[in-house]
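Give me the fold.
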Amino acid sequence: MLSTRACVGDPMPQASVARSGDAARMSACATSLHRPRYYGSMFEVECPCCDAILTVDPETRAVIAHTVPKKPLPIDDLAAEVAKLKGEGARRDEVFRKNFEAEKSHGKVLEKKFDELFKRVKENPDDTPLLRDIDLD
């Protein structure tokens, strides 16, 4: 069985033949290889991880060629993507406005929290803060 060191993004991965005791060390590409197609002395194997076609020479036990499959286009409909981008601008503005308002009132919230805690301390001056382990040293 054929095992590869790297299959994704490597134009010429190194190959070797696995022995019966090497099953635990085999990569995901080698554990479930598809049925090979023979072309003369070489054969082709499809990688289950990246769907690449590996052309292998059985005599030298090396990958001779690595063919990467074509990826689909990321954008199917340009008009729909443009409309989505226009909507993203309005959503971004709304999020900015909400965060801006929250930041403006953040100082008032902190001041009210401080005043409440200060009032609690004045009412109960005997309450000592909890001792931490570091305070005992």
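Confidence is low (pLDDT under 50) at residues 1-33.
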